[in-house]
Design a protein that fits this description.
This protein has 273 residues and is mostly helical. It contains 9 helices and 2 strands; from the N terminus they run βααβααααααα. Strands 1-2 form a two-stranded antiparallel ribbon. It is globular, with a radius of gyration of 19 Å.
Length: 273
C-alpha cells in the first residue's frame, strides 16, 4: 500500500503536519489541566491512545483535503525473502539501539515516554506495538516522505522524514532509536515504494523491543559485557549487509521505473511544478 500524490509537499508543509501531530495530544492535555487540574502526562496509556488518535486525524485531513491531492492506494507487496529481511533487520536494529543507549546515557523524561512500548495489558500492546506503528508509517513514510520525494532528492526526503519521526518521540532517551528506525524503514520505502515492508519492520521492531524489555537486556549487558558488545557489533554488520541484500530483491512491477534510487535526486521531469 502507498499514498499517491501529484503536487508533493514542501518542507514547511511537512513540519506543519508534525505540529498538528503535537497538537493532537498537547491541546487535550492543556484543556483537561485547565478545567480539572489533572495532569494527563501521569497517564501514559491514555496519552498513547491520544497520540494514535491525533496521528489518524492528521492522516485523515491529508487524505480528505483536495489541495494536497493525496490518495490512498491499496496494494500488498511481500515476498518470503523480503519478509525474512524485514524481521531480521528490525531485530538487529533493536540490538544496535540498545547498544547505543549504553554509549549515549541520555536523560529519561518519564512524563514524555507515552510513545514508548507498553506491555502492561493486551490493549496497550496492540496500541503501542501494532496500531501506532502502522499509523506512524502511513504518516511519516506514506504521506510525508512520499510527498517530499516529489520536490526534493531522495536523501533530503529520507533525512527529513526520519528527523520528524524522531521529534515525534519527545523523550531524549527514545530519540536515537527513533531516528535509526526512521532511516531503516525509510530506506525500505525508497526501494519498494510500498508501506508493507516498512510496517512489518516497525511492528517487528516494537515487538522485539518489548520482549527485550521484559527479558531485562541491561542485566545481560552488565553480566557479559564482551559478549554483549560482540552481539551489538554483529547486528550493526547485519544491518549493513541487509541494505545490500535489499537491493537484490525484485521491485514491485508498478515501481520498477518510478522508484528513485536511494541517495540520488529525482529527475527534473519527476518534480512537481
Amino acid at each position: 500500500m502507498y499514498v499517491k500524490t501529484r503536487h508533493g509537499l514542501s518542507l514547511n508543509g511537512a513540519w506543519q503536519m508534525q505540529i498538528a501531530l503535537f497538537a493532537g495530544w498537547i491541546v487535550p492535555c492543556s484543556i483537561v489541566f485547565l478545567i480539572s487540574g489533572i495532569n494527563l502526562l501521569q497517564f501514559p496509556a491514555l496519552l498513547s491512545w491520544l497520540y494514535l488518535l491525533g496521528g489518524v486525524s492528521v492522516i485523515t485531513c491529508a487524505l480528505v483535503r483536495k489541495r494536497d491531492n493525496f490518495k490512498f492506494m491499496p496494494r500488498l507487496y511481500m515476498t518470503a525473502e523480503l519478509f525474512l529481511l524485514c524481521i531480521t533487520s528490525a531485530i538487529a536494529l533493536v540490538m544496535v539501539k540498545d547498544g547505543s543507549g549504553s554509549l549515549l546515557p541520555l536523560p529519561v523524561w518519564s512524563d514524555m515516554t507515552f510513545t514508548s512500548i507498553r506491555t502492561g495489558d493486551p490493549f496497550a500492546v496492540v496500541c503501542t506495538v501494532v496500531l501506532i506503528a502502522m499509523m506512524e508509517e502511513i504518516l511519516f513514510r506514506g504521506i510525508i516522505m512520499e510527498a517530499l520525494l516529489q520536490r526534493y532528492s531522495a536523501g533530503i526526503a529520507l533525512l527529513q522524514s526520519a528527523l520528524l519521526y524522531m521529534l515525534a518521540h519527545p523523550d531524549p532517551a527514545q530519540m536515537p532509536g527513533a531516528f535509526m528506525l526512521g532511516l531503516l524503514t525509510g530506506a525500505f520505502y525508497l526501494r519498494f515504494r510500498d508501506l508493507c515492508p516498512s510496517m512489518l519492520i516497525h511492528i517487528s521492531y516494537n515487538a522485539a523491543a518489548a520482549l527485550m524489555l521484559n527479558a531485562g537486556s541491561h542485566h545481560f549487558a552488565e553480566d557479559s559485557p564482551v559478549v554483549y558488545v560482540l552481539i551489538v557489533a554483529g547486528c550493526a554488520g547485519a544491518l549493513i549487509a541487509g541494505y545490500f541484500l535489499m537491493q537484490r530483491i525484485p521491485l514491485p512491477k508498478s515501481t520498477e521505473k518510478a522508484a528513485p534510487l536511494p541517495g540520488k535526486p529525482l529527475l527534473h521531469t519527476e518534480r512537481s511544478v
